[in-house]
Amino acid sequence: MLDAVETAVNRPSDPSRDAREHVPLRAAVEALPPYVPGARPAAGERLWKLSSNENPYGPLPSVVAAIAEAAADANRYPDMYASELVEALAAHVGVLPEQVVVGNGSVAVLAHILAAVVDAGDEVVYPWRSFEAYPIAVSVAGGRSVMVPLARDGRLDLPAMAAAVTPRTRVLLVCTPNNPTGPAVHADELDALLAAVPSDVLVVVDEAYLEFVRDPQAPGAAADARGAGAVDVLRRHGNVVLLRTLSKAYGLAGLRVGYAVAPARIADGIRAVSTPFGVSHVAQQAALASLRPQAQAELLARVDALVAERERVVAALRAQGWDLPESQANFVWFPLGEATSERAKQARAAGVLVRPFAGDGLRVSIGEREANDAFLAVAQGWLADR
Ligand SMILES: *Cc1c(COP(=O)(O)O)cnc(C)c1O
């Protein structure tokens, strides 16, 4: 999702800077990793955009209608706490409304969670490589990043994360499925993590891709609880927060609606530091329309179609000879190391935008069938060219 906000940061060494400027930025801000400009098609360029894990389907007609109707009220402030949406989300998840906090995308909600619990110099433990927003959110919150390397096959190493906890640790971030590598944590692994971590350390379970998970060992994967995710884990522990979004499965990335599900007291704290009116009226109404039973059934049928596409793409890649980590999300990960940037350029030349993480690997989102076929042809070429 960060593609959309990537801009050239004004680096301190920039010769165009005015010599009269003496206002120091916070050291943590000066040290933020520079963003690689996001891959977006230039004006008029025809490219398949498989670089941002977006849902290739546009909003449902009923959702577009709700957006259009809400637009007429744009002169009014939105409902500050998005009460109607919070109630709908609470019913959707199966918790109390006071346990739900919405925000301008789940990245903003994560920033608010950290603002509520992290003091200067506190440690936040998270896997790496994982979601690129984590190191930035931690630094901006004044915290210190403790990055724990992934285990084999792009899986989170939860025992190593538990072992990385010190008296200064306030938060652990568990990204499941992990962006950009793809595997989901298993219920027993998460239980073991929570048994090992002190109960005053917050464990944030980032379930941005929850609806795409089909791993029977994932939390909440039992047949009668499909899509429940780690909500049962939340009920059993006082130090768990779930982070969710309507950007991926629900296809509302452009409207920015994310939410946290937390114990009520922690939710109060997150709400207290949240940007006032952080979710626009248009976004609230679009989210509400997406959660109506009929719309939700249609949206989840699309997710099923994307999961079927994922399985088709993964099977085709295996048949080509690729050995890749398991994906439980709407993307696949190619650990290409030093070849990564070159491969991304080749994909673009072939009409497909993918997401390179220089020197490490390349993430390719699952899109419409034609886009996936275009990418499969690219991947076949890479094998021939090794
Ligand atoms: C895409 C993504 C999000 C969601 O971001 P929004 O701000 O809700 O659009 C959160 N976490 C991870 C790991 C993601 O990949």
Automatic annotation (TrEMBL):
It catalyses: an aromatic L-alpha-amino acid + 2-oxoglutarate = an aromatic oxo-acid + L-glutamate. The keyword Transferase applies. Residues 48-375 form the Aminotransferase class I/classII large domain. Keywords: Aminotransferase, Pyridoxal phosphate, Transferase. GO terms for molecular function: aromatic-amino-acid transaminase activity; histidinol-phosphate transaminase activity; pyridoxal phosphate binding. Pfam families: Aminotran_1_2. GO terms for biological process: L-histidine biosynthetic process. The keyword Transferase applies. It is an enzyme of class 2 (transferase). Residues 1-21 are annotated as: Disordered. InterPro entries: Aminotrans_II_pyridoxalP_BS (IPR001917), Aminotransferase_I/II_large (IPR004839), ArAT (IPR024892), HisP_aminotrans (IPR005861), HistidinolP_aminotransfase (IPR050106), PyrdxlP-dep_Trfase (IPR015424), PyrdxlP-dep_Trfase_major (IPR015421), PyrdxlP-dep_Trfase_small (IPR015422). Transmembrane segments: none annotated. The modification N6-(pyridoxal phosphate)lysine is found at residue 248. Its cofactor is pyridoxal 5'-phosphate. Its EC number is 2.6.1.57. Belongs to the class-II pyridoxal-phosphate-dependent aminotransferase family. PANTHER family: HISTIDINOL-PHOSPHATE AMINOTRANSFERASE (PTHR43643:SF3), HISTIDINOL-PHOSPHATE AMINOTRANSFERASE 2 (PTHR43643). Homodimer. Aminotransferase that catalyzes the conversion of aromatic amino acids and 2-oxoglutarate into corresponding aromatic oxo acids and L-glutamate. This is Aromatic amino acid aminotransferase. It comes from Xylanimonas allomyrinae.
